[in-house]
Amino acid sequence: MPRVPHGTIDQFIEHFTLAIAARAEQVLMRSAAGRSKAGAGGPRMCPNPGCTRPGAGPRNRWFCREHARSVPEREQRRMLAERKVANQTAARAARAAEGGLKLDMRCRVARCKTMSRGPRFGYMCDKHLSKLSSKEQSVARQKWNLAHAATSPGRTRTSESAETR
Ligand SMILES: [Zn+2]
Ligand SMILES: [Zn+2]
Fold this sequence. Notes:
The relative contact order is 0.05. This protein has 5 helices and no strands. By secondary structure, the chain is mainly α. One zinc ion is lined by residues 46, 48, 51, 53, 63-64, 66-67.
């Protein structure tokens, strides 16, 4: 391996950074355009993959006039089922990305009541983020996961925190 002089690396990094910035801009512009095109309240589109025509109402299962006639009913139902699954998956992913309903933001350290800074910070609060080593943090997370795995699915085992009495 030949050694690369420092100047070259700097140039490379600069070039790379500029390329990334340009690319990010492109992506942002494209996604903004896509959002306004398929915005909320827009016409419901034909579920046939690749078709860009608006659907011809619920009686045609929202297929466009052409596809409502040309695609056999069984095929239409299959496409709708597929689309439903895809939509559900997308919705779930979007919810998870937004933070989700069930995302527990509490700091994973036992008895710490502070809110953590979320998954990107390993669910550690500011204090524990700086106080604990990454190993200690992961141990705390494991303990927390174990404790919460036992209570979440059935909530039958509420050993110590008895609700009655
Ligand atoms: Zn169509
Ligand atoms: Zn904490």
